[in-house]
Structures are given as C-alpha cells and as structure tokens.
Amino acid sequence: MAIPDWPESERPREKLLKNGAAHLSDAELLAIFLRTGMAGKSAVDLARELLTCFNGLTGLFAADQTAFCELRGIGPAKYAQLQAVLEMARRALEEKIKSVDALNSPRSVRDYLRLSLQGKKYEIFVGIFLDAQNRTIAAEELFRGTLTHTSVYPREVVKRALHHNAAAIIFAHNHPSGIAEPSHADELLTQSLKQALGLVEVKVLDHFIVGGGTAMSFAERGLI
Fold first, then answer.
1. Are 197 and 158 in contact (CB under 8 A)?
2. Which residues contact 189 (CB under 8 A, 6 or more apart)?
3. Largest CA distance in the chain
4. HSE-up of 119 (CA within 13 Å, CB side)?
5. Which of 10-19, 39-48, 69-78, 125-134 has the highest mean pLDDT?
6. Contact of 154 with 179, CB cutoff 8 Å
7. Residue 94 and residue 90: Cα distance in Å, rounded?
8. Per-residue model confidence (pLDDT) at position 25
9. Are strands 136-144 and 214-217 parallel, antiparallel or unpaired?
10. Is the pTM for the entire model greater than 0.85?
11. In the prediction, which pLDDT does 147 show?
12. Closest Cα to residue 215, out of 168, 169, 179?
C-alpha cells in the first residue's frame, strides 16, 4: 500500500510535523528523505531495505556511490542529495563548535567528530585548534592513512598550531575497525604530541577516538 493510502497518523511526514522528528524511526526518517518508493515498495519499505543492506544509518552514511546505487530504486541523484545533507549537518556542527567554549560543549565536539570521522574506511587524524577562550579557530584533517595506521608527525602539528596562533588543541582520529579503544601506540603518540606542543605553550586538551558509533575521550579516561 502506498504511503498516501495509509492512515494520516501513520504517515512519516505527518507524524514528524505533529510530534517532531525524534518520534520517528530510522526507516521513517529515511523515507521522508527518499520521498518515493518504487513499484511494490513504499518509501518506508525501501528505507528499511537500505538500512538492512548497510547495517543501519552509520553504514549508509559511509557508503560510497557505487555501493549506494547498487540497490534497485536508488540512483546517483539520491546519493548526491544524501551527501549534501550530511555536509550541511557537518558544517552546522562546525559553526556551533566555533561559537562556544569547546570544554563546556563536549557533546557538540563529539557530534562533529562522529559525523566527520565515523564510517571512514581509512584512518584520519584531525586537529581542532582553539584560542585562549577555548573557542574553535579551525578544524583540520592533518594526516590520512590506511585501514589500520596513520603516520603522525609532531613537527607538522606544531607548525599548524603556530600557523593558527592556537592556545590549545583537541585531537581525534577514527578506528575503521569500529572499536573506539586506544592502543598503546595511541597513548604514546598523544604524550609525544603533548610534549612537543608544550614547548610552544600549546595545551593538548583531549584526544578522541571515533568508532562503533561512539567517541572515546582520553581526558575522561585520565590519559591526558
């Protein structure tokens, strides 16, 4: 049965307008984005199929164009629309963390990092450069690696911190394996960066590891 033939109280768009987006399931939210289904499938049916195929929203957001468009009923136009939505959300979060004290808004920082790094198939190491009031000056991808490793050079990080005239920095990298736990190498790297930046009076406030839908904080673990 097509969605317009459903009872009004069960239609995703009407439910959202009446109760708010938080009351909808992942499939219902995705159905609103898709707008239409295909022969024999409503938009909700198609949304459920996408979520099953990619193991949820995280996998769907990380899918490349080829994988996304392999599913019947989905094409490049929908892929482009999805990427545009994700990029707008990322930019909105970046604007938010630039306007607030990063230490007093840890959720905003976590949300930004998860959206930026979650689901990537290779390791990415980023830095969020802060001023003396802990407001974000810039967020940059500093290094990019492979599935399991990224080479990080403290000297280059110090150069970027001086370039931005930063007073502090928050680091983050992803674990494509999905396990957001620090390795011994991660801990050693964090201490090495802390020592190098300390020589130019730049504080390392935190280091997040993103994976499996979470962002683990070194500061909260007492590892900084």
1. yes
2. 152
3. 67
4. 15
5. 125-134
6. no
7. 6
8. 93
9. unpaired
10. no
11. 62
12. 179
DSSP 122: S
- Could you tell me which residues come within 8 angstroms of residue 80 by beta carbon, excluding any fewer than 6 positions away? none
- Distance in angstroms (rounded) separating the CA atoms of residues 159 and 166: 10
- In tens, the pLDDT along 100-117 reads 777 667 788 888 888 888
Residue found under tokens 């839908």? 213
- Alpha-carbon distance of 173 to 78, in angstroms, equals 29
β 168-174/203-211 pair status: parallel
pLDDT, residue 163, reads: 97
Cβ-based burial of 146 (10 A; exposed 0-12, middle 13-18, buried ≥19): exposed
CB 207 within 8 A of CB 190: yes
Tokens standing for 163? Answer: 């370039």
pLDDT by residue (tens digit) across 12-43? 989 999 899 999 999 999 999 988 877 778 88
* Sequence-ordered list of residues with C-beta below 8 angstroms from that of 180, at least 6 positions apart, any chain: 209, 210, 211, 212, 214, 215, 216
Q: Is residue 150 pLDDT above 80, yes or no?
A: no
Q: How far is CA 106 from CA 64, 96, 176, in A?
A: 29, 11, 22
Torsion sign, CA atoms 54, 58, 63, 69: positive
pLDDT of residue 57: 86
